[in-house]
Design a protein that fits this description.
This is Major histocompatibility complex class I-related gene protein-like. Belongs to the MHC class I family. It comes from Huso huso (Beluga). With about 210 residues, this protein is of the alpha+beta class. It contains four helices and eight strands; from the N terminus they run αββββαββββαα. The chain has one domain: MHC class I-like antigen recognition-like (Murine Class I Major Histocompatibility Complex, H2-DB, Chain A, domain 1). Strands 4-3-2-1-5-6-7-8 form an eight-stranded antiparallel β-sheet, with helices on both faces. Strand 7 and strand 8 form a beta hairpin. The chain is globular and about 50 Å long. The structure holds 2-acetamido-2-deoxy-beta-D-glucopyranose (2 copies).
Amino acid sequence: MIRMTVLGILCWVHAAAAGTHSLQFFGMATSKGTGLPQSVYVGMVDDVQYTSYNSTMDKPVLLTDWMNKINGREFWKKRTWYILQNEQTLKWSLINTVQHFNHTGVHTYQNMGGCELHDDRTKRAYLSHAYDGKDFISFDVETLTWTAAVPQAVFYKHMREANTELQQIILDYFRQECFQFLEWCLQYGMETLQRKGKVTISYSIPCV
Ligand SMILES: *[C@@H]1O[C@H](CO)[C@@H](O)[C@H](O)[C@H]1NC(C)=O
Ligand SMILES: *[C@@H]1O[C@H](CO)[C@@H](O)[C@H](O)[C@H]1NC(C)=O
């Protein structure tokens, strides 16, 4: 089941509609003792994976070469910070959720989020979480509110709303950082992105 969930994070990756560019991430924390890394992170720009990280690594690895130019390294530094921050948040979420439910054994906590720029200049950002592979809670970037997908997640909503430091980090991320980085990628990586197109990850896994 855990293995399926690991593969499952890639199943979340879907091609965006034509006329849309997107920056997306998929993160997951897993209980200790599975033999799998306790956290995994995948970052995509359009349909190209640009970074990969898991808790057995010192730091995230950059998978594209076009970020090594202009102010790309500055963006990469910030990105590294966000990826490691996301790992902390996921671990914190997993520990608190497992504790809240008095669960034992192996559990997973996932988040996925991103931002989109459409050709008509409209923008969209989103963030949602899953516990044990099921929708748990989501964050509305417009209204800045957490919405529990299941009644059991209400405690988490309160916990997040009380954590002003984390709230500020996601506000900065989803209101600015995500779009700024996506725009930069489109400006400096566009050629590569178009050339690589949609072949970077091939999905041989049936997505359920
Ligand atoms: C974690 O990272 C290591 C080192 O890059 C890699 O060999 C391994 O396949 C990764 N595991 C997962 C589940 O991503
Ligand atoms: C978890 O255990 C504590 C103490 O035994 C109990 O008060 C609480 O209601 C339990 N929580 C759930 C969700 O069952």
